[in-house]
Amino acid sequence: MVEESKKRRLEIVQTEVKDERCSTFVLNGEDHTLGNSLRYMIMKNPEVQFCGYSIPHPTENKINFRIQSTGSPATDVLRRGLAELTSLAAHVLVTFEHSVEDYKSRTQDDEDMEIGQ
Fold it and tell me: In 6-69, where do the E strands start and end?
């Protein structure tokens, strides 16, 4: 058995059918957190006919991820989905950090007002 650290993060399952619009990917070291988020982002693409994932067994730390599109190759659809998910995560992080700073400044203002009374 190959050690977890030596496995590739992403593998493409080879099939006899050579249709680039349909592919199954194996994402090693991932679980429902990435699987469901990525599936949601990819399904927003109007070219996507089907997108789903499964975890082969609860003890296996990998996802089988299937994409079928009507136009672009599945690898391009996956790249686009990953890029959009990364962008969304960055936006959420920035929004969260701004909210924390706003909260801290309001809390500090409230404390300053209580001390001044």
Answer: 10-13, 22-28, 48-54, 62-69
Given a contact cutoff of 8 angstroms between Cβ atoms, the answer to whether 55 and 62 are in contact is yes
User: Is 5 a residue whose pLDDT tops 60?
Assistant: no
Burial (CB count <10 Å: 0-12, 13-18, 19+), residue 77: buried
Provide the percentage of residues in the chain whose pLDDT is more than 90.
76
Specify the pLDDT at position 108: 79
Annotate 63-97 with three-state secondary structure. EEEEEEECCCCHHHHHHHHHHHHHHHHHHHHHHHH
Q: In this structure, are residues 20 and 75 in contact, taking their beta carbons and an 8 Å threshold?
A: yes
Q: What is the pLDDT of residue 9?
A: 93
Map tokens 């003890």 to a residue: 59
